[in-house]
Amino acid sequence: MYSVLIVDDDAALRLILSDFLSQEDYKILLAKDGREALDLLKRQQVDILLLDINMPGMTGMEVLEKVKELGENPLVIMLSALQEVKLAVKAVKLGAYDYLSKPVNLEELKLVIEKGLQHRQLERKAEHLEQRIQESWSPAGLIGTSPAMKRVFQFIDKVARTDTTVLIQGESGTGKELVAYAIHQCSLRKDKPFITIDCGAIPEELVESELFGHEKGAFTGALQKKEGKFELAKGGTLFLDEIGNLPLPGQAKLLRALEQRQITRVGGISMIPVDVRIIAATNVILSQATREGKFREDLFYRLNVFILELPPLRERKEDIPLLVENFLHRFAQQQRKNIREISPEAMELLLNYHWPGNVRELRNVLERAIILAEDSIRPEHLPNFSGSTPSPSLSSLSTLPFSEAKDKVLSDLEKEYILQALAKSGGNKAKAARALNINYRTLYEKMKKYGINV
Ligand SMILES: Nc1ncnc2c1ncn2[C@@H]1O[C@H](COP(=O)(O)OP(=O)(O)OP(=O)(O)O)[C@@H](O)[C@H]1O
Ligand SMILES: [Mg+2]
Q1: What is the pTM of this model?
Q2: Rounded to the nearest whole angstrom, what is the distance from the C-alpha of residue 128 to the centroid of ligand 2?
Q3: Which residue, 121, 115, 66, is CA-closest to 95?
Q4: Comparing C-alpha atoms, which of 356, 347, 402 is closest to residue 378?
Q5: Where does CATH 3.40.50.300 sit in the chain?
Q6: Site to substitute for ligand 1 among 171, 359, 365, most atoms within 8 A of C-beta
Q7: For 7-27, how does the pLDDT look when each residue is reduced to its tens digit (9 = 90+)?
Q8: Which of 166, 287, 288, 364 is most buried by its number of CB atoms within 10 A?
Q9: Architecture of domain 139-309
Q10: Per-residue pLDDT, 396
Q11: To the nearest 10°, the Cα dihedral for 265, 269, 273, 275?
């Protein structure tokens, strides 16, 4: 049911209009002047505003301006006497939808309102569409044909239809956020909000207020009542990004909210039930963070209902050509360049690189290449990949306890350095030791340890 606020100093007209419109199934609100109208608008949701132009005190034009200042956006229809038509036209320029001359023809009023509401709906739809187009990604935007990605798609399809909590684990840039959104878009909650909170980016003292909101005056700086992310996500999905970075006190509060399925705003007393689906993501391995005491075990078990491991790009290199083609197409269009091709040599380089930053890095490399290139992308448009030493993949280490993984990475690095120093010194151990700033004996022992022969 739409609500109509009728603002006119003429009591008889208010009565006629409200009688008629309540029969047409509108909810009626009345005000006899601008001040009353603005008071009501602050407190109540108003869909349609019938606004007399000529009133004592505040004129209709002034009320209209104030309404805009309030950030309210009802459908405004001005009511004007014949001699005020010029003003009415000006009001339309200021954002009123239309105007009617007095005496008001009731059938005409009904039509104008209906047309206005329709117009509104179309406007909203168009806005919505535009927003969707502007979003650089959509679930359909998830690219990949590798067996690893096919498993990811199957997983999305399976969990999307349920309300279960999902934990997405993967290196930086593997598409965790994209997948979380895809799950939301494939779920029954797709028309409800998808709200993201980056748990690592909020200062510790604000975590609670970000998650649960606060009442006015709850703490210094809380000038207004504010809804937290849990309330904003009502009926939809709450995406807890980088959950591994949530400070411990915040973890305790989050756990309580998830268990009780209700929250309290900071400084508030009432319990507010929450209906949200939780998806969490992390690029640290949570089970390990739990062992190290950085992540609450009970929270980990609560989140760990369904866990999705996103494979790093280097483990699904067969997806690279398709990703390249897509990014090429997208960025060429964005930058209005007619680049359709990538040379075989350039593709070879992309395929051989180990992509520590995963799909995001690939995307950035291509965006830059397209700026540099003229007609096709060639090796000179790509960064110099050869200088970097491939590091062991995080997922290949993830089975090891942290201290062992660390030792492994460090010894790989050490071995690499020694080999390089020896290569530069032409096999001269004394020279290599000096370059590495270690003594000869240490070098000798390390060479033995790593099985290096000159
Ligand atoms: N499978 C994919 N298909 C198409 N684009 C992808 C895919 N995976 C990732 N991307 C793109 O790569 C970029 C990084 O993805 P996203 O932000 O989802 O990664 P992330 O895992 O959340 O990274 P971080 O841990 O750094 O936050 C985005 O631009 C995203 O659109
Ligand atoms: Mg992310």
Answers
A1: 0.60
A2: 24
A3: 66
A4: 347
A5: 139-309
A6: 359
A7: 999 999 999 999 999 999 999
A8: 166
A9: 3-Layer(aba) Sandwich (3.40)
A10: 62
A11: 0
